[in-house]
Prior knowledge:
This protein is an alpha/beta fold. Helix content is 52%, strand content 13%.
Amino acid sequence: MLSSHMKNLTHLFNHNRRWARDIEKRQPGFFAALSNQQAPEYLWIGCSDSRVPANEIVGLPPGELFVHRNVANLVVHTDINCLSVMQYAVDVLKVKHIIVCGHYGCGGVRAALENRQHGLIDNWLRNIQEVYRQHQRELQAMPATDAVVDRLCELNVAWQTLNVGHTTVVQEAWARGQEVRVHGWVYGLSDGLLKDLQVSLSSVDELQTLEQKLRGL
C-alpha cells in the first residue's frame, strides 16, 4: 500500500518510466552500457537553482558530465564535499575540463547583497560578500540593483574559477603534467544561453595572471 505522500509523487515515477523508455527506444542498450562505466571529460560546478539543469544546458546525455552543485556555485577551500568531488573527478575520472557556471539573477548572490538575516545560509553567503568587497567601487557605481546582481554573478564565477585553480587537487594535477583546464561561464535564465567570461586557466602562470587582474594589481 502506497502512503499518501508516495501517491502524490506518482507523476514523477510515471515521468521516469517514460524517460527511460524513450531513451532505450532511441538507443537500445544505453542503460546497460552506462551502468558499466562512466568516463566524463567535464566536471560541472554549478548553482543548486532548479532552473539551471547542467546536462540539458550543454546538450549532453547521462554519463558525459560529472556534476557538483551548491548555492551560488561556490568553491570554498573548507568545503570537503566540493573538494572530494573535484578530487574524484580529476584523479580518478581524469576529467579534462572543470566548468564553474553561475547564472544571472542568482538568488544566493542577491541574498548576499541584502541587509537582512536569512538564517544558516548567511554563513555561506559571506563568501560572496567578500567578492563584493573586492569590487565595491565598481559595483556601487552601478545605478540598478539588477545590474549589480548580474555583475556580481560574473565576478563571483571569476573568483570561484580562481579558487578551483588554487586547490591542491588542480595544483597537483598541473604539477604532474595532467591536462586540466578550468573555465568560468554564466548562464542566462532569460534566453538559455551561456556566456564565456574568458577566465580560463590551465597553468600556474595563467592562475597568477587572473588573480592579479581580479585584485587590480
